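User: I've been trying to design a sequence by hand for this structure and keep getting stuck. Would you show me what you'd pick, starting by listing the structure so we're on the same page?

Assistant: Good idea, let's start from the same input. This is the structure you sent:
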């Protein structure tokens, strides 16, 4: 689903058009269909719908399909359905920080603390752990003295369209991190994450 707007903040108020399975199936893959004045559907190609396909492939396919149409504006905001806990205030803060900076893109993420990524290790086929002196040093160190590392949470990716086309990516060394904390950073990757998301949605009415 792609929405064209002059104000990213209106996304929280948008109600997507509902299409029947037959209507959706009639849209050729790799094309864009207008369903409302500012609402469009881009149907991914089979190659972009595979489990190992990269998100950027579908984004680039869409942008190249509508290339030459200046009405799409200069920025693209990607909201992934696997990161459902978002709110309009957060989005407004992110957009404001992005527009008041010299960065070419912004992406949301969180501090990765527990378990700390530098305390990870590999194992052999017989389940014996692979330990080097460097790994052992980190395993025995308090996490507070290890490097602060961050991970994208998948909730927001805001990027200049020209930058996406140039870098062939949503992120680069010109990306600003929009820091988030708490349960809202949950990214649904498996059945357990989905169960937790349903629980949080009911418990906190989000």
């Amino acid at each position: 689903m792609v929405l064209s707007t002059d104000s990213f903040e209106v996304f929280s108020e948008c109600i997507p058009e509902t299409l029947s399975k037959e209507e959706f199936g009639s849209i050729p893959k790799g094309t864009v269909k207008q369903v409302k004045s500012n609402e469009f559907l881009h149907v991914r190609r089979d190659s972009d719908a595979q489990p190992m396909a990269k998100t950027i492939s579908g984004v680039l396919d869409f942008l190249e399909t509508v290339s030459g149409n200046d009405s799409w504006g200069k920025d693209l905001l990607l909201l992934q359905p696997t990161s459902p806990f978002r709110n309009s205030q957060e989005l407004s803060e992110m957009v404001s920080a992005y527009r008041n900076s010299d960065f070419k893109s912004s992406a949301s993420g969180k501090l990765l603390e527990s378990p700390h990524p530098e305390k990870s290790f590999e194992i052999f086929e017989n389940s014996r752990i692979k330990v080097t002196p460097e790994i052992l040093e980190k395993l025995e160190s308090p996490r507070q003295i290890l490097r602060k590392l961050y991970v994208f949470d998948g909730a927001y990716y805001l990027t200049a369209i020209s930058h996406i086309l140039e870098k062939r990516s949503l992120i680069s060394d010109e990306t600003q991190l929009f820091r988030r904390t708490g349960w809202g950073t949950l990214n649904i990757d498996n059945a357990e994450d989905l169960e937790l998301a349903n629980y949080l949605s009911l418990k906190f009415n989000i």
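That's my pick for every position. To get oriented when you compare it with your attempt: Helices lie at 21-25, 55-65, 88-99, 133-139, 161-167, 191-204. DSSP finds six helices and seven strands in the chain.
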